[in-house]
Amino acid sequence: MPALPVDRARLIAYLTALVTFSFLTSPLWLGAGLAAVLALAGRQGPRLLRRALLATLAFSGAASATYAALSWWTQHRLPLDWLLAANLRVLLMALLTFLFIARVNLFRALDFSRRLTFLLTLAVSQSLGLRRTLDDFRLGLHSRAIRPAGLKARYRAAARAAAWLLDRALANAHESAQALQSRGFFK
Amino acid sequence: MHIPDGFIAPQMYLPLYGVAAGLWAYGAKRVGRELDESGLPWLAALTAGAFALSFIALPLPGGASAHVTGVGLLAARFGLWQAFMAASLVFALQALLFGDGGVTTLPLNALAMGFAGAAAARGAFLLLRGRFPAAAWFLAGWIGLFLPSVLIALALGAQPLIAHDAAGRPLYFPLGWSVTLPALLIPHALLGLGEGALTLLGGRLMERLHARYGGVA
């Protein structure tokens, strides 16, 4: 039996660990999981932990603060068990995802399907190109006006960018299909 | 604001994955049937367009901005299944390439925003475009943002009911519907006005472009 490619094995391990962690509710197990993932991350650990914290802070912070305030208001106590367990779980799962992103090439992990790899490669490469042009649109609006643009001008600029974007996407689709057809991809 | 992993209980996200997987399989078949062999590049380009669309700032009064979802515009212009497949791929890419949003929240986002939002937007657009074309574009944008917020508020508020300990204390998202519904619905009803205005302007511009230069699809 051929060995499973490393990236695909890591994708399977990541998804299995993510689902397993989502079942954990004990702060002790969650803390142990966090320590294990940090150990796996090695030197990248602190940087990935910071990224995970920043990525989840807005939602976790809002939910935690609202629940803590409500509990204090209605029961005159803080839900410390929930605060600890929920925030540890969210942080653990986000850290695992950032470790996965840092260590795994998603395109290689999904290369068992030629069509899926092609779809992802084309979508991601075109997204990056379109995003760069959107930045040009934004900078163009700033450079054309001495004062900050008003609401109406910003709406018109955003709508122009959206219409251009979808029109460009259509043209890209058409061109890619022709290019693939001429190279015999669909045979 | 994306919901990170860890707030939606497995009792909810696992069945939602089942429902979403069925719709993804059917959607892939539909897109393939409608577009023949150009389906793959079409879907890739539309996903790239939807992904980039999420980086456009929705202008708010006072110089502030929020992010466009673009679901209404996509559904009104391209139809339910193409919008659903493109939006789902965008959520997957955001989660697995950029750590934005979560893998366990993916089916909720895909079903609420990509499917229900797109279906409502497409339905509203088809219903009104004959007699009130401007209202059709506007409503597609508004409902494409507002309906998903209702569904996500319901899903979040259901967490304390479906996943709690023996004493009834929540294990995942802790706040019930009395908090989630007003917290999500009021801002999204207002943000929807901006998304509706942007969808109207963007949709009209696309119509003009196609009338002038002809479409490629």
Overview in brief:
By secondary structure, chain A is mainly alpha-helical. Helices cover 83% and strands 0% of the residues of chain A.
Describe the protein's architecture and organization.
The complex is a heterodimer of chains A (187) and B (217). Chain A is mainly α and 187 residues long. Helix content of chain A is 83%, strand content 0%. The two termini of chain A are 29 Å apart. The mean pLDDT of chain A is 88. With 217 residues, chain B is mainly alpha-helical. Helix content of chain B is 73%, strand content 3%. In chain B, strands 1-2 form a two-stranded antiparallel sheet. In chain B, strand 1 (57-59) and strand 2 (65-67) form a beta hairpin. Chain B starts with 9 loop residues before the first helix and ends with a helix. Classes of the chains: A mainly alpha (187), B mainly alpha (217). Chains A and B meet through helix 1, helix 3, helix 4, helix 6 and helix 7 of A and helix 2, strand 1, helix 3, helix 4 and helix 7 of B.
Topology:
The complex is a heterodimer of chains A (187) and B (217).
Chain A: H1 6-23, H2 27-41, H3 45-75, H4 80-103, H5 106-109, H6 114-144, H7 151-182
Chain B: H1 10-35, H2 39-53, E1 57-59, E2 65-67, H3 71-78, H4 80-98, H5 106-128, H6 133-162, H7 177-213
Antiparallel strand pairs in B: 1-2
Helix pairs in contact in B: 1-2, 1-4, 1-5, 2-4, 3-4, 3-5, 3-6, 3-7, 4-5, 5-6, 6-7
